[in-house]
Each structure stands twice: as structure tokens, then as C-alpha cells.
Design goal:
The structure holds two protein chains of two kinds. Chain A is an alpha+beta fold. Chain A is 42% helix and 37% strand. The chains are: A alpha+beta, B alpha+beta.
Chain lengths: 155, 102
């Protein structure tokens, strides 16, 4: 074997190995990032679904009397039997809190990555009939939740 | 240098086979990773669909009907997801997984 051909062969092998390892490294890094992002998004979506379900159940079973409702920017407080419940958006995190005269306030983080939330209450003079929720997460959502009390009375 | 040249001469064919095996293993690895993330991608879009379906049901008749999203994923991915999402409603059935909206 000539001296030149050995050098050439060694350079080719080295170049191929370097190329393969750099591509492998990039593929592993990309896959890891992709995996992390997807699992995170899946987690956020599952939590969001649970939060919407829990929020709608809370509102459906709420006390319809107007005096028990307080609504401000991205925050809603209402009463459900002997329990006060609040839903609030703070720095893209949605919190649910509940308390009563004999219970301490318990605040839980229920969903993350929510950009915006707005509560619009539809009511007559004395009672709340429904609540429209405008929510912005990975997409804009808007839905109306009827109070069970209100719905029954309307029927 | 002489020793190296002698060694290369002796195992010239072997180097090529080694390189081919490395390329083969490398592409298999990439394919496995791709399949794995594609599965996750599918799962992610299904979770988005579940949210949209839930809200759609609310819009149409303010009374929520339980909707079920069925899909199948690999067992290893399922085990990882179970660890990552311990509070989720993933349920196994047969060889796959069933995800309930509620």
C-alpha cells in the first residue's frame, strides 16, 4: 500500500465517522427536545381538559343568586352550597380556590399555559342564568355553561 | 506508520463492513426515534381533539355527553406516559390504551 492512499483512506474514514456522529448527535438532541415538548404539551392539554370539566361542573352546580357572584378581570367567585369557589388566571396559570367559614382557603394550580380567560355572566335581576367563558390557550375557545338551577327554571 | 499501513492492508475489507454496519445501525436508530416521536405527535393531536370535542358538545346542547377517544400506542410509550402523567385517565384495554375525556 502506498503512503498516500493510506492517508486518503484514513481521512475518508475519519470524515465519514465525524459526519455520522454529528448527525447522530443532532438527531438525538432534536428528538429529545421534540419528545420533551410533546410530553409537556400532552400534559398541558390533559390538565386543560380536566380544568374545563371541573370549571363547568362548579358553575353548573353554583348558587344562582346574583349576590353570590363576583366577577373581575380573569377572576370569578361564586358560592356553591356552603362553599365559596374562585377561578383565577395568574401569569398564564389557572388556579381554583375553595373555602368556607369553617374551612381554610385551598388554592390549587389546575392548568398552565393559558394566555387569556374572560368570564361573561348572563343574568336577570336576581339570578345568574349562564356563564360564557372565553379562553385562549393553544387556540381560542368560547363556550357557555348553563346553571342547572337556571336551566330548570327556564324550562 | 509502517505498522499502521500493514494493519490497514490486512483489515481493509473489514473496515468497509464495519462502516456499513455502523450506517445500518445508525439509520435503524433514527427510524426508531422517528416512530416514537410520531406516536407522541399523534397522541398530542388527539388530546387537542378531545378538548375541542368537549367544547363542541357544550356549544351544541349545553349538556355534556361523555365522549371517548380511542387510540392505540406502544406499551413502552404507555409506561412512560403513565409515569409522566400519574393523574391522567389513561386506561389499558387489550393491547392498547383508552383515553376518556372525563
Amino acid at each position: 500500500m502506498k503512503k498516500g492512499s493510506f492517508l486518503l483512506e484514513a481521512i475518508v474514514y475519519l470524515a465519514v465517522i465525524l459526519f455520522l456522529s454529528s448527525v447522530l448527535f443532532k438527531a438525538v438532541i432534536y428528538s429529545y427536545k421534540n419528545y420533551k415538548e410533546l410530553v409537556g404539551s400532552l400534559h398541558e392539554n390533559t390538565n386543560l381538559l380536566k380544568a374545563i370539566d371541573s370549571l363547568s361542573t362548579d358553575i353548573q352546580l353554583a348558587d344562582a343568586k346574583n349576590i353570590n357572584w363576583k366577577i373581575s378581570e380573569a377572576k370569578i367567585i361564586f358560592k356553591q352550597k356552603d362553599l365559596y369557589i374562585s377561578w383565577e388566571l395568574e401569569k398564564n396559570n389557572l388556579y381554583r380556590a375553595e373555602w368556607s367559614s369553617d374551612k381554610e382557603k385551598k388554592r390549587n394550580l389546575v392548568a398552565t399555559n393559558i394566555k387569556k380567560i374572560r368570564f361573561i355572566v348572563k343574568s336577570n335581576k336576581t339570578e345568574v342564568k349562564s356563564v360564557v367563558i372565553e379562553l385562549e390557550s393553544y387556540k381560542k375557545f368560547s363556550f357557555e355553561i348553563h346553571l342547572i338551577n337556571g336551566t330548570y327554571e327556564a324550562q | 506508520m509502517f505498522m499502521a499501513m500493514k494493519y490497514t492492508n490486512k483489515y481493509k475489507g473489514f473496515f468497509l463492513i464495519e462502516l456499513m454496519v455502523a450506517i445500518l445501525l445508525f439509520s435503524t436508530l433514527i427510524l426508531v426515534i422517528n416512530g416514537y416521536t410520531a406516536n407522541l405527535q399523534k397522541l398530542n393531536s388527539l388530546s387537542k381533539k378531545a378538548i375541542e370535542n368537549y367544547i363542541k358538545n357544550y356549544r351544541s346542547n349545553s349538556q355534556f355527553e361523555h365522549s371517548v377517544v380511542n387510540f392505540r400506542i406502544g406499551k413502552s410509550l404507555f409506561k412512560i406516559l403513565q409515569k409522566k402523567l400519574p393523574d391522567s385517565d389513561f386506561k389499558t384495554y387489550d393491547s392498547g390504551i383508552r383515553k376518556l375525556d372525563k
